[in-house]
Structures are given as structure tokens and as C-alpha cells.
Amino acid sequence: MVDASLGNTSAQEAADNLPDKVAKLLKSQQASAGDISAVTGALEPAQGMRAPVARFIAVHDGEVLLNELLPGLKVESPSVDVGPFPNFTALARSRGGSFSYLVAEVGRDGGEVHLYNTTSPERIASRGIVGAPEEVRHARKVPGEYDQPKAQAAADEMIRRNTEEVAELIEDMCRDNYVRLIVLSGDIKAREAVASALPANLQDYVEVIDAHTRTGGADTKQVQQHISKLVDEVKSAAVADLEAKVTAQAGNGRSLLAVGLDEVVTALQSAQAEVVLVGQYQDEHTLRALSAEPWVAHQEGDDHADLVVGEWPAPEVLLRATALTDATIRYVPDMAMPDGAGIAALLRWAKS
């Protein structure tokens, strides 16, 4: 993981010197020539993004498997790790709790729907519905063919059809992505029509902002600030929900809650853990990684000795075991854990 920030002369100089610096670190850890070439070739600075920005790269057999920008993460010096056990904890901490969201700019003639993810300010994708605004004008204005009520009815029907298509597009994009927020902006009647056309299961995710960005009449900076506030509110609500679940279980016999590293490891071994909550980083502990189920073993003891592939810091082994047992891991700062524990897990079924 390295700093990918730009913005001033010293940052540019650091970016220019970074490949040589990283290459020396990799050589000192006996990385192969192919891996060194792959890593240094991927060290591009993050153009157009506000500092700080980090870049996380994972390479295997000379091939770049992962190349991610992490906005908001400050890296003082390059962190390089060569070995058989990949350390993705920095990436997981940055990506924890991430979700996709849609920003739909709608009008009576259709609209555009933009897909974002909280991991980056960059737009991921855009899709649009292009109606025919001239048809609306034609329905209203052709003399001798329409009286005013008929013209209005024809125009309303075209608007309804366009907004329903936008709503269907939003539904499709939600189905394909982990969307937890839908922001509607644009013409007031169109956005109301789109909101009402969305299915019930998406209604809780809808937020309407009073801005018409499609016509260029809205303050783009103000609109972006409003969207950022909505995103932060969704993040805060998710953390509050986890805290409420932990609190409820802590006072209810803990039947669906594992507390402390030993209990969490035991829960992971049986795939019982659904959400692993890390309040403290557990750097002082190590765990054993296994080559097959149950994937992780306690630091001490002879259980599953024939499957042990090595012993590494607990955060790295926990992350691997969480992924292999289809659990979710959340790094939650300042979370109130029972008994001051640094780690806990919400369970899929009650402890026996």
C-alpha cells in the first residue's frame, strides 16, 4: 500500500520516486522480478482526487490481481508485504460498510441514472432513458389536431411513460448492485412520478432533493454536499443498527453474541458468525490459518494441527476466515463492546 496523492510539487516528486523506492523494498523481501515489475507498473498517482489517497495493490505470479484507490486514507511511507499469506486488512478496514448508491437526474423527457460507491468519489457507471421532448411539445401545440384537454392528456401520457422507464432502470440497477440510497433530482413532477413508480422494497432508500441539475440551473457544489450528507446519514444509521443489535444481545443472555477473540474464533470455526465486529485491531494476538475447514484455529492448542499452514497476526487470519465462511467483517471505531472486549460477533443461530 502506497500514497497516491498529488496536489503539490513535493507530492509529484514523491510520486516520481515511488517506483524505485517500492522496488528496493520488494527486493529486500526477496520478491520475484515479475512481481516487482507488476507492482511498479501499477504505481500511478491518483489524478484529480483530493488528498490523501492511498493505492492498494496485490500481485501474484507477476499479475496484478487487485489495484484499488482508497480515498481519505493517509499513508506516510510505503507498506510492502511479500509472502504466501496476503494481508488485506487495510483494504477491508477502508471498504468496511461500503455500499452503492444511485443519483437519478430526471425530467419529463427521461433521465440519467448514475451509479456510485462509497469507496470512491468516481462515478462507476451511467445509464439513461431518452424520451422525445418534441413529442410533448407536438401534442400540446399542433393546431386542429388536438384541443387543449386532449393535448394535455397526450403530453401527460408521454411523461408518464418516460418516468416509468426511468423507474424501471433504477430498479434494474438496484438489482445488480448493493444499493442502499437512491437520490432523485430534477423536474419536480418527474421526480415525484419516478418515486411513486418505484416498488415498495426500494421506497425506504429514496431521498428527493430539490435541484434540477439536468437543465444546469442547480448549484452543483451544493447538490454534491447534499448527497454527501445523505451518504453519511446512511453510514451512521448502519453503525447505529449494529450497536443496537449488540446492546440488545448483551442484555439478553448473549445467545446470539460471541464476545472476545476466543469466542469469535470458535464461532467462525462452525460458520456460526454472521457479522464480526472489530472495535480494536487485535494486533497483539496471532492465530493459525488452516488449509481447509474450519479455516482458523486458536493460537494455542493442538486442534487441526494437520491443517495448519502458518501463524500470522490475528487481523489477517480473521479476515481470511470471515471471507471463507461467508461472514461479514466490520471495523467499527469507538463501538461499545460488552465487558470492554475489542471484538465480538453477531451469530446466525443461538449458542448451545
Largest sheet: 5 strands, mixed
The topology string of helices and strands comes to EHHEEHEEEHHEHHEHEHEEEEHEE
- How many alpha or pi helices? 10
The average pLDDT score comes to 86
- Give me the CATH fold name of the largest domain: Nucleotidyltransferase, domain 5
Tell me roughly what share of residues is in helical segments. 25-40%
Structural class: alpha+beta
CATH homologous superfamily title of the largest domain: eRF1 domain 2
Tell me how many strands there are: 15
What is the total domain count?
A: 3
Integer-rounded radius of gyration = 26 Å
Strand content: 25-35%
CATH architecture of the largest domain: 2-Layer Sandwich
Written account of the structure:
The chain is α+β, with helices and mostly antiparallel strands and 352 residues long. Helices cover 39% and strands 25% of the residues. The chain folds into three domains: 82 residues, no CATH class; 119 residues, eRF1 domain 2 (Nucleotidyltransferase, domain 5, 2-Layer Sandwich), CATH 3.30.420.60; 108 residues, Ribosomal protein L30/S12 (60s Ribosomal Protein L30, Chain: A). It contains ten helices and 15 strands. The strands form four sheets. It has a five-stranded mixed β-sheet with strand order 6-5-4-7-8. Strand 4 and strand 5 form a beta hairpin. The protein is globular, with a radius of gyration of 26 Å. This is Peptide chain release factor 1. It holds the Pfam family baeRF_family2.
